[in-house]
Amino acid sequence: MVKIVDVAKRAGVSTASVSRVISGHPGISDELRERVNVAVKALGYRPDLAARRLRSGRTDTLGLIVSDIRNPFFTEVSRAVEDVAYQNGMRVLLCNADEDPDKEAFYLEMMRDENVSGVILSPTLALLKSLRPANYPFPLVLVDRCERDTDADAVVLDNFDAGYRLTEHLITQGCQRIVFLYGSVGSTGPQRHQGYLAAMAAANLAPEAEPIAPRSERAREVASLLLQRNPLPDALAASSGLVLLGIAEAVKAAGVKVPGDIAIAGFDDLPWTSLVTPDITVIRQPTNEIGQTALRLLLERVAQPERAVRRVVLRGELLARGSTQLR
Amino acid sequence: MVKIVDVAKRAGVSTASVSRVISGHPGISDELRERVNVAVKALGYRPDLAARRLRSGRTDTLGLIVSDIRNPFFTEVSRAVEDVAYQNGMRVLLCNADEDPDKEAFYLEMMRDENVSGVILSPTLALLKSLRPANYPFPLVLVDRCERDTDADAVVLDNFDAGYRLTEHLITQGCQRIVFLYGSVGSTGPQRHQGYLAAMAAANLAPEAEPIAPRSERAREVASLLLQRNPLPDALAASSGLVLLGIAEAVKAAGVKVPGDIAIAGFDDLPWTSLVTPDITVIRQPTNEIGQTALRLLLERVAQPERAVRRVVLRGELLARGSTQLR
DNA sequence: ATGAAAGCGCTAACAA
DNA sequence: TTGTTAGCGCTTTCAT
């Protein structure tokens, strides 16, 4: 392996100069820089990252802990984060907590061990409730999930508003008995549920909601039961794409007509939601913007550790489609 | 920060002993081990990974470079790889090459810089054609994509067989003019195409196939054109889940009846394929097994660098569904 | 603007 | 079985 002394010898300079050149330090004569660059190329030199990290204390690495990598929402966000990170010369350690607080804790420990510059995280509700960002040796940016009083930078959807508008839309379309199925492991489901409750109350309708584990299988089971009722509810609404999938599966299995017998609506503009017949009304989340913004917040926090905590709240876009057509 | 000397002092032993205990070396007296463990806990000591890596030359890290993180097939594989890796005490560096050979090369360089123990990779065709595993300072295990003469451990589907059986199934269902759309950036599309050609030849049918960029948008465009023909083809077959999605979108937009006017079939048992009406015939890939096997191969290769190259070929499962019902 | 040299925290030879 | 110590490759004072 070629090391920095080899380059230094070849270029006829000191190792310090080589280090300065490859780290892009200012105040280097053009001639020396050129000599070093030539030697680096000639020898195919690559700095040893472990040595560099040990000595400098910096890692240029950041962590991204998503709660479920199979959820396309997080996949999209991850892609956006990764893209921007590499454009900024940072590496990303991507981890999948699988909605499991134990795994989540394990990965956060790991981030500490890895001495990352910062972490982007979509926490479980359990962690969120007890989160003390000051306890971590790195800055934290939350995505998708965050409570009103959480003391950390965050990028989230206006979940209350989204839940409200989705419900309001259903009401406008003539639905009254609207059942809301929401994931209870994160904070988004409950927040969207609050929006649902407010919209129902504003219309003087009786709410009915079911908190469930955020997996399509579970949503499907619960929805199946709901679909055996007589009379049927007017609508089933979901707090996420995963829950919506379960509902759609249950509806298909039960053979009820949408929107004739029942309306359905949910979150996340996934390809399949516009592929099925009828296509399904959803609130679209700006996944790219969420990921990019989270990374930007993190980089800014790294640069200025003391600046005030910021929360970026993005608005969902209601895509009204066939599944909620006027009855 | 508490370091190894602090622990050594507190336990009244040498740093070497502490190092031995925390690295799980054999031949340590129970009493010393106990003393060290107590001190470690009391001080909350965590080894500095950079120092450890610099000194030992090992990183206990492996790389996973997928060609498209948004493709659910790779998401599933990634999850499986990550799960097993962490069970084995290894960290995973997950990167998304986005089907771009430049990014792919960049990430492979990065893996070298990170000094990973090994890399799991789904290469673009461009890379695969010129791949010299011996050129990399780490072992390589290919997933999903590999050619007959590739000189590296690999876990792949029997793509020829899968393409053959999917086509054969369509023929059995009465289709004759079967158009095959396949992704041309990886090796799987072309291999499945070969299976398609063989099945068509065996039935004395004239093949017609379109190589396309592996994105649903592109598949949709090409399929739309195909659907304007008069008469329509008997069937449209896809070499991947992404291509199948594009076909399904085009079919819906064109308003043609499936399987009445045209049959469709493809790959990957994604949730939406059984959600649409009619549900869609696919070849299911054993994603979990692919990921787990790839990791196993890699760990075995790390343990025994000189063992013979192995290729694990898994069989796809034909899920015959409504979209290819007998005409 | 450049060089000399100390030392980041740990592991592994070697010694005892 | 345990301790002593050199040194992994780099960055960063400090000196010039």
From TrEMBL, chains A, B:
Gene3D superfamilies: 3.40.50.2300, lambda repressor-like DNA-binding domains
PANTHER family on file: LACI-RELATED TRANSCRIPTIONAL REPRESSOR, RIBOSE OPERON REPRESSOR
Any GO MF annotation of the entry: DNA-binding transcription factor activity
One Pfam family named in its UniProt record: LacI
Record keywords, A-Z: DNA-binding, Transcription, Transcription regulation
InterPro entries according to UniProt: HTH_LacI, LacI/GalR-like_sensor, Lambda_DNA-bd_dom_sf, Peripla_BP_I
Protein name: LacI family transcriptional regulator
Organism: Rhodoferax ferrireducens
Domain HTH lacI-type: 2-56
Superkingdom of source: Bacteria
Signal peptide: none
